[in-house]
Amino acid sequence: MQHTRSRQLGASMLEVALAVVLISVIFMGMTPLILKNQDVTVAKSLSQSYTQFWTAASAHFEANRSAYISAMTDGTGADQLCKVNVDSMTGAGGEETYSADVHRCALDTSMLKFVSALPASVSDTNAYGERWVAIYKLVYDQQSPPQPTGGVEQLVVSAAVHGQELTFVPSTSTYDRALTAAGFTSGSAGVVPDADRSTCVASRSSGVFEACGSGWRINLGDYLSAAELQAFANRLIN
């Protein structure tokens, strides 16, 4: 789970790995980030897998920047660009992930393999059985109406592209292990809490849904539509 800001080719690239609900068919889970007695091994593997995916997703976006900006602006070409869970050999099938509400496009490991941005030998799933998903989102200013700045934020999440909307059961040990694992991604990692953890909050009753790391926090509502955020909220106990 990682968050940094950088500038490249005029884009504000935000990289984060966390657990959220992306669309109705993609359920992010607060699954244990690392396994008991295997903390170091699994955490390092997760960090390496994440870095490989983020690097490939970033390079693919920059190589096709104008096409993705068009897709995020009004949906042009989104049915071909913004997809997850496709056949990595043919590109067939899958689900479209374009959101007009937040001007967002997303693709996963299978899509990056289909466009040859990742080697075919790369596993579809990461260390905890989910897929990496890259979310690209246009940045708008504060004018009325808001105008695009030319910047794009990139959010990398770990997602289960198939799954059930299971309720999160708060676990202090799981959350603590997730924080520990986050440290293996150059100290810029973060997590989405499974409850109100004081320093980072996910709470249906208070309507606050965050992802946090060392010195940073983001509002999940900035990346999810209202329906998606509600789906995430429904999985919390409180």
Structure description:
With 238 residues, this protein is of the alpha+beta class. The chain is 27% helix and 23% strand. The chain is built from six helices and eleven strands. The strands form four sheets. Strands 8, 9, 10 and 11 form a four-stranded antiparallel β-sheet that branches. Strands 5-6-7 form a three-stranded antiparallel β-sheet. A hairpin with a 2-residue loop joins strand 1 (4-8) and strand 2. The radius of gyration is 17 Å and the shape is globular.
Brief rundown of the structure:
With 238 residues, the protein is of the alpha+beta class. It has six helices and eleven strands. The model is unreliable at 1-37 (pLDDT under 50).
SSE topology:
Layout: E1 4-8, E2 11-15, H1 39-63, H2 65-74, H3 78-81, E3 83-84, E4 95-96, E5 104-108, H4 109-114, E6 131-140, E7 148-159, H5 172-182, E8 190-191, E9 202-203, E10 208-213, E11 216-219, H6 226-233
Antiparallel strand pairs: 1-2, 3-4, 5-6, 6-7, 8-10, 9-10, 10-11
Q: Report low-confidence residues grouped into runs of 5 or more.
A: 1-37
Question: Total strand count, please?
Answer: 11
Q: Please work out how many helical segments DSSP would assign.
A: 6
The overall pLDDT average reads 75
Query: What is the percentage of strand-forming residues?
Result: 15-25%
Give the class from helix and strand content and strand pairing. alpha+beta
The helical percent reads: 25-40%
Rg (CA only)? 17 Å
Sheet with the most strands? 4 strands, antiparallel
Order of helices and strands: EEHHHEEEHEEHEEEEH
Taking the alpha carbons of the first and last residues, their distance comes to 24 Å
